[in-house]
Every structure is written in C-alpha cells, then in structure tokens.
Amino acid sequence: MVDINKPWVVDSRLSERFTVYTRGNAGEVAGMVASPLQQTVISGWRSETAWRQALIDFGAFDDCEFSPDSLDIIGVAHGYIYINLSIQRVFGVRMPGASAELMDRTYLGSSTGAPEYVEQPGDSAPQYAERIGASIGRVMGTTSRPDLEADAQRALELRRARPDYSAMSDHELVAYSNRVNDEYTADFLRKHMLMMYESSIVTGFLDETLGRFDDSTLGVRLMGGWGGVASAAPAIELWRIGRLAAASELVTKEFEVGVDGVLDRLRSRGEVEARSFVEQFDGFIFEYGSRSSQEWDIFPPDWESHPEMVATLVNQFRKLPQDSSPEATGKKVSQGREALLEELRVRLADDAEGWGQLQAAVAALSVWMPARELSKTNFIKALHETRLPLRELGKRFADRGVLESFDDLALLRLDEVSALIDDPSVVSVIAERKEWIAELERREPPFVVVAGDVPSPTTWEQRTGPSALPVAGPGETLSGLGACPGSATGVARVIMDPSEAEELEPGEILVAPETDPGWTPLFTTCAGVVVNVGSPLSHAAIVSRELGIPAVLAVEQATKRIKSGTLLTVDGTTGTVTVH
C-alpha cells in the first residue's frame, strides 16, 4: 500500500512569503492530480515563469519578490494544483480601485475557508502605482488586439506544418515537443496570463462605474453577447454540423444506427451527402481538435484523438429544435445588453461623467472579453502541438511492450522520459505511481490550503462519498455567482465528464463539477448550467454569456447536493438555484 501522506512526485514547496493557496480557477482546468509529465512539460516552471513575467510586465511585481528555486504562484500539494491566493491579494492591494477582498471574490466565489487577509510588509508598496497606472491607461485605450490575431495565424501555420511523427526518432519527438514549447507555447501562455490581469482592469472599472446604482446584477447583464468569442466558436460550428446531419436523411439514418462507428460507416459511403458531412466534420477536427476537458493534462481526451466524442455531440445537436441556435440565443443576450445600456443612459441623463465612464467600460469589454478567450485558444492550440509528439512516443513504448498503455508515459517526469529512450528500466517507478495517483484521485482536495498546514490526504473527503452538506430539498435555494442573466427551469442532470454528453437531454439543467472548453458544446443542449466552481471571468462564465445560457457558478458541492431528476430553477442574474 502506497503512503499517500508523503509528497507526490512533483509536489512543490509552498511559499513562506505568500502562504495562502486556492483551487479556485485551478480546479476548472486541472481537476485531477498533476502527473509528473504534465508538471514538467506544462504546469511547472514553464507556467510559473510565464505567470511571473505577466505580473512583472503588468507592473505589479518585481522579479526579486519571487523565490528563485521554488514555485510560488502555481503550487502543487499532494498532486493537486493550487493558485497562490496571497499573491493575487497583494495584486489587488497594489491595483488602484481593487482590493484583497475583490481578488477573494474572483478566486473563491462564495466559497469559505480562506483565512482573512492580513497585510504584510511590502504589500502596499507605492512604487508600483506608476507602473500599474501606465498599464491601466494602455488597457483602457486599446481598441483592438491585432497581435492576438497574428498569434492565431501562427498557431494555424504550426498546425499545418505538423511533421510526420512516424518519420522521427524517439529523441527527435522529445526535441520537437520542447522546440514548440519554447518557440510558441511559452509566449502564448505569457500573453494569456497577462490578459487575465488586463481584463480585470476592465471588469473592475465596470464595477466601479456601476457602484452608483444599487443593483448587483447590472455587471453580469452587461458583460456578454459580444460575438466572435473563440471558446464559443466550437459550439456554433457544431450546431452548423448538427443541422447538416439533421437535413440529410442518409446521415440521420447512420446516426440512428448508433454513434459507435458512425464516422467509419459514413467514410465508407460514396454518396455526396456522406462525403460532404465527413468533409465538414474533418474540418472541425482540424480547427478545434486541440480542445478537450482537463486542458492542462499532458494526455487529455482531446477531440482530435477522440473524434467519437465530437460525433456524440453532433448526435445531440441534430436533435435540437431550430430555435436553439447558439447564434440566436447569443443575439438575445446582446439585445438585452443594449436595452439595459439604453435604460442606464436615461438614468444617467444628468450625469455626463457617469455615462461617459459607462460607455468607456462597455467599449473596453467589447475588446477584452473576446481577446481574453482568443489568447487562451492560441495557447491551447500550441500546447496541443507540444503534447502530440509525446503521445506518439508513449504509443511506441506501448507497442514495444515497455509500457502497458501509452498514457503510462505521463507517470514519468520529462527527464525520465528522455532517459527511458535509452534505458527501459526507468519504467520500474510507474507501478507505484499509478497506485499512488489513483488513491489521491479518490479524494477531494481542500479548496484552500496554507503553507505549513496542509491537511493529510487521508482526512480529505471521498469524491464518491456523501456531501459534507445536506442534499438540497424542496423549497431550498442554493447561492453562487450569477454568470449569465436570465432564468430557466428544468430537470437537473448531473454530468461528471463531457464523455457523458448523451445522458443530457435537451431542456435539462446541466450540473457539473467544473467546465473548461471541452464542456462548451453541452451548454447549447441544456436550458441552464450549475457548476461547483468558477468566477465571473472563468471560462464557464464567458461562454455561457456568449451562448445566452443562464448559469450559476461556485455553488458549493452542487454535484453532490443536487440529484439528477430534481426540478430546478436557475437564475443567472441573481446567482441562485431553487429546488422545487
């Protein structure tokens, strides 16, 4: 029996200066234990370096404030990735118009358990004000981000130039992965990390501007419906492919035979309808194949490697009524935003300064909300090209009988992978690590931990065990963060993984643990969304607003407190979920 109380293979030393860490936002993209390969290729020093540089570029920190030999911003405790809340709080203290409490709301939502912020020497250092002020001026004066469009083109060209992995040696595969990481992924990630802080300027300015009104729902009602949001694009394109399938009697019959094998059956047919569908489907995979759930994993179930997942989604989309079009529902959000803006214009008729500030905030939102998601999409596309050579290497070792499965390669650090090429005995560590990771993943990590006081994993709640909170009963209202305005009533469907998409019926309420881009298309097939974790600028929030799906995030233990089949009303304006 493995001892899960000892540090995991890639655990980090938590910061002694910035001591509070949270799973908020981290749990959305890294829900399970970080594998050794993931941590040494993606989320270790490579991500830490990019994030540090983003904070420095923004003007909020100096490099000397960070530890030179241990991770500060991205901590790993017993295998689970945490974001340093203390550093985000200091950012809030140094940022004009922000606060430590604002950062708590951003990263914690309505969750509790974090120790109260206590200012430390150096937290409110005034020398950063001028630098941050320059960043504020730059952000508010930005009307477009052509550099991100250029990065999108670079990512596309990288995909088109993908080499033939079968012609590369084992060492060449590792070298190519490293080169893509160094030349593309690292730069795209730095921009995305900087984008998080730049977009927070805009939402902070909006909150400040709306402070003159006694209505906490205004912000969420003004933040969506911009169109052109990269992470919502897959849902829109899947809708189009679903319509194509629904319009073809031939394609429809093949899906009705069963989703299993439907792509092979359609490829084997010579009819124009079949060829046209397959061409559109393959084009979708080429463009969006990098997307998946658990996008920080080294070997996630991405759509290119698992096209059957996309076929399942198409099967769901083809059954939807025409008025479920994500473009149509998104247009309603846009129209609602414009109507609200006109209402506020009238209310500010005697306050020219207030109206001018509100116009500036909304104009900035129209730039930075789509830009934030485009920066993330560019990063994921480059990351996909970083991972695939390692997947090929894992398959080779499995074919040679060195590994039981290609994804066992994830249980080795990158340096061990390189060593394995010349010394197969390195695999001897895998058996224990496989058992170790399985034991850790049976448990739910604490939402907040403090350096020097991380509870033993043996005390963590079992994922499959009962909730620490009671199951919600009739008449009870659960609170969270409203992400997309509007309300919807429907039957709850608890979905723990996007691969279970076929269980979600049109008109039901999706209740999920977290929602990264692999979940996005499910939003279109449901009436509303409830999520365990999330924040106003999380992926789930931004996409739900673009698709016009009422959503409530950060509902503590929602997947345990709400049972499938329960009738719910989701109010994405007030951030409440009512059980009927």
TrEMBL record:
Pfam families in the cross-refs? PEP-utilizers
Q: Does the keyword Transcription apply?
A: no
What are the record keywords, sorted? Plasmid
Q: Which GO terms describe its molecular function?
A: transferase activity, transferring phosphorus-containing groups
Keyword check for Membrane:
no
- Positions in coiled-coil regions: none
Please state every residue range assigned to the domain named PEP-utilising enzyme mobile. 505-575
Its protein name is PEP-utilizing enzyme
Q: Tell me the organism.
A: Rhodococcus opacus (Nocardia opaca)
Taxonomic lineage is: Bacteria, Bacillati, Actinomycetota, Actinomycetes, Mycobacteriales
